[in-house]
Amino acid sequence: MTENAVQEVERMVVTRVFDAPREVVWKAWTDPRYVMQWWGPKGFTAPVCRMDFRVGGKSLCCMKAPDGQEFWNGIEYHEIVPHEKIVSSMYFADAQGNKVEPEHYGIEHEAIEGTYDVTLFEDLGNGQTRLTQIGNEPMQSAKESGQLEGCNQILDKLAAVIAGLVEAK
Amino acid sequence: MIERLSHGPASVRGLTEPFALSQQMISKHIACLVRARIVTKTKRGRESVCTLRPEAIKKVSDWATSYRRFWEESFDKLDVVVNEMKMAEANNDRKRGSRSGTDGRHPSL
């Protein structure tokens, strides 16, 4: 086990603590009505989200960039433990849900063969939930494709500062 | 800042004003954008003028869809949705709670 762990490529992990019970976060994650409200980066909208949330089922979500470009993603579900864990594969798709290479959208995405996206929902006990998204992309690749990583952090901090200023007004 | 520069070139001072941040912070931010070759900086007299490189925009859209970026920013929005859901649920509970309370006080109803 330990030897395997050492061999494994470090994967992209994104975590966030939400000030809401686990059931609420789960619902927001698995009900298309809510997914449409948050799917995609800042400034993007999600005009289409069709979900067949069950093991073996697939979802198809569209996110629309501020410049109007549409990105379609498919998600296939491999394992679902209610309120705790989702094992899935996310891929780029066309509007019909057919899998396409990320290059189709001009995106570099190096996936690790045979690994999945894992989403974990942890009840922190005080009405808060920690969400962990483990990607099938190696950490190193994500750093390179997002060559602005260092800058991103500055941007994020700056954004937080600005948000604070706006709120203070 | 990119939003501002998309309307045309601007001086460093012009970029600093809307943010209420120190010029030093802004300069650091600009240096970051210059290093990423999203922005070019040229001297015009005593002032530095920043211009957005249009060809870099596509690169920015790639960056916006990078894995971490995608999830971090989706999580920002999810946070808002989750809070709204929590509030809606609390309101429902209160309505339900007051109704059952009324029923309890007026069993004949």
Tags for this entry?
heterodimer, A: 169 residues, alpha+beta, Alpha-D-Glucose-1,6-Bisphosphate, Chain A, domain 4, seven-stranded antiparallel β-sheet, 5 helices, 36% strand, globular, disordered C terminus, B: 109 residues, Arc Repressor Mutant, subunit A, three-stranded antiparallel β-sheet, 13% strand
Q: Briefly, what is this?
A:
Chain A is an alpha+beta fold and about 170 residues long. Chain A is about 30% helix and about 35% strand. Chain A has one domain (about 1-135): Alpha-D-Glucose-1,6-Bisphosphate, Chain A, domain 4.
Give an overview in words:
The complex is a heterodimer of chains A (169) and B (109). Chain A has 169 residues and is α+β, with helices and mostly antiparallel strands. Chain A has a single domain (2-137), classed as Alpha-D-Glucose-1,6-Bisphosphate, Chain A, domain 4. Helix content of chain A is 29%, strand content 36%. Chain A has five helices and seven strands; from the N terminus they run αβααββββββαα. Chain A has helices at residues 2-7, 22-30, 32-38, 139-145, 149-168; strands spanning 11-18, 45-51, 58-64, 70-81, 85-93, 117-123, 129-138. Chain A has a seven-stranded antiparallel sheet. The radius of gyration of chain A is 17 Å and the shape is globular. The N and C termini of chain A lie far apart (54 Å). Mean pLDDT of chain A is 79; it is low at 146-155 and 157-169. Chain B has 109 residues and is an alpha+beta fold. Chain B has two domains: 1-54, Winged helix-like DNA-binding domain superfamily/Winged helix DNA-binding domain (Arc Repressor Mutant, subunit A), CATH 1.10.10.10; 65-102. Chain B contains five helices and three strands. Chain B has helices at residues 2-5, 12-16, 23-35, 54-64, 67-105, and strands spanning 10-11, 39-44, 47-52. A three-stranded antiparallel sheet of chain B has the order 1-3-2. The interface between A and B is large, with 50 and 37 residues.
